[in-house]
Amino acid sequence: MKRNGGMAGGWRVLRDACVAGAFAAMAWSAQAQGTAPLKEVTFLLAAPPGELAFAPFMLAQTRGYYAQEGLKVRWIAVHGGAAVGKQLAAGNGDIGDALGDTPILLRNNGVNVKGVALLGGHPLHQFITRADRTIAQASDLRGRTLSVMSYEDTSYYVTLGILAAGKLNKSDVTIYAGGPNGVWQDVANGRSDGLVGTPEWGARVEETGVKVHYRPTDQLTPGMGQAIIASDKKIASDPEMISKFVRATMKAMTEIEADPVAASRAYVGAVPSYADKLDFVTKVLTYYAKYVFPSRLRPGEFDPAIVAHVQKSYVDKKVVRAAQPVESLYTNQFIPGK
What we know:
The chain has helices spanning 5-10, 16-22, 55-62, 65-68, 81-89, 102-107, 154-165, 179-188, 199-207, 232-237, 239-258, 260-270, 278-291, 304-316; strands at residues 39-45, 71-77, 95-99, 113-119, 126-130, 145-148, 174-177, 194-197, 212-216, 226-231. The chain has 338 residues and is an alpha/beta fold. Strand 6, helix 7 and strand 7 (174-177) form a beta-alpha-beta unit. Helix 8 (179-188) crosses helix 9 (199-207). The protein is globular and about 60 Å long.
């Protein structure tokens, strides 16, 4: 496995000033509304806030749903979902974004975080390959090149699961960690045959004129959607804050699922960098609404059988050493309507 050290090493934590710019149009003033002071909450994002995977958070912010719950959210981006979990366990943040799979990976190493809400009934990550590289199944990846965001992002561990499904391991392929831009640019310019990541990265490749094939990763290896996670300590010490944040986020997610066109218009109106990209945003959010967010359960709810199945897959494929108690990996106590 080769590492793209330049891109990965140059990635920095995005502090308040950076994130504030992306959210400037989303500001919500509690004082202007005549309400009590808002409780400050630090939320760790697994990538820069402009990624469309974060649309439920962005829309909850711009529509004032967090403020209505009495929260003022400070957004900080770190280097992947696994890094989010480690920072939360260390007390460097209140809640954060990862995959539902992430606690399976981290609790094996003593990082005690769990999922508190799941953003959809299907995996966030897609297995996206160039149409001209004739990759029909996992075993076709031998000798190929794939891109992930980073080696600390859950997309890397999902990639290991995909390889195992084809009876391959990481030494059979070259895996580049390209960061949030290089991950799709490497596919667009032909350096990589495909990527494991969010739907918008495939859409960005298509914008360059390159045709790609999308496969939800659960066609090859079990997985879960994007999740809100928190440390065991924070769940015990501030359950009210977590409940409020989850309720506001689930409200925005269900609105995207119900009407992705209207949600896209609201999104581009709130995020200046997407002001002229309505068609692109609509394409991506419609994909989420159709293929990622739908669930047979209540919005945000984890299915213990699926969590157990995903964990078993990681153990069987030797991505993690041992299974943890399933109930330690998630909680549904914060799901609205419970």
